[in-house]
Write a structure and sequence with these properties.
Blueprint: E1 2-7, H1 12-22, E2 28-31, H2 42-53, E3 60-65, H3 69-75, E4 83-85, H4 89-97, E5 103-107, H5 113-124, H6 133-147
Parallel strand pairs: 1-2, 1-3, 3-5, 4-5
């Protein structure tokens, strides 16, 4: 499994802990930054994450900022990204099952390492239910209408 991951300064510590937890399991990460806790702007990292995920080279993406909200908003500006802020196991499950999210976002200031691991495990182990494809197609239709 290959995952794109990005954070701002507020998500840096959680990002590093997530990578450390999963790398011994053979899960590889392309870390798109940031590389320390110096102040940066989350839109830059949300955009990079969204663009990376849309290359098709990743199973999914993980974005982390202080709350997970801002980086998700930024990632969702990239056509084709369906970023979902997950905050419990049910939202992690339904983000994939019902919305076929390709990016999950977490709050570095609001999510413990243990909780983040549970959320990521739930998301990665859940499959999209094809009965919801009509909704995904409607989202794509909104994106295409914006291009006109």
């Amino acid at each position: 499994m290959k995952i794109a991951i990005a954070s701002d300064h507020a998500g840096f510590t959680l990002k590093e802990a997530i990578k450390k937890h999963y790398e011994p399991m053979g899960i590889t990460f392309d870390d798109l930054g940031t590389n320390n806790e110096n102040r940066v702007d989350y839109p830059d990292y949300g955009k990079a994450l969204g663009k990376a995920v849309m290359t098709g080279s990743y199973d999914f993406g993980i974005g982390i900022c202080g709350t997970g909200i801002g980086i998700g908003i930024a990632a969702n500006k990239v056509k084709g990204v369906r970023a979902a802020l997950v905050y419990d196991q049910l939202t992690a499950e339904l983000a994939k099952k019902h919305n076929n999210a390709n990016v999950i976002t977490l709050g570095g200031r609001t999510t413990s390492i243990a909780e983040a691991i549970k959320l990521i495990d739930t998301f990665k182990d859940t499959s999209f239910e094809a009965r919801h494809q009509t909704r995904i197609d409607k989202i794509k239709g909104i994106e295409e209408a914006e291009d006109e």
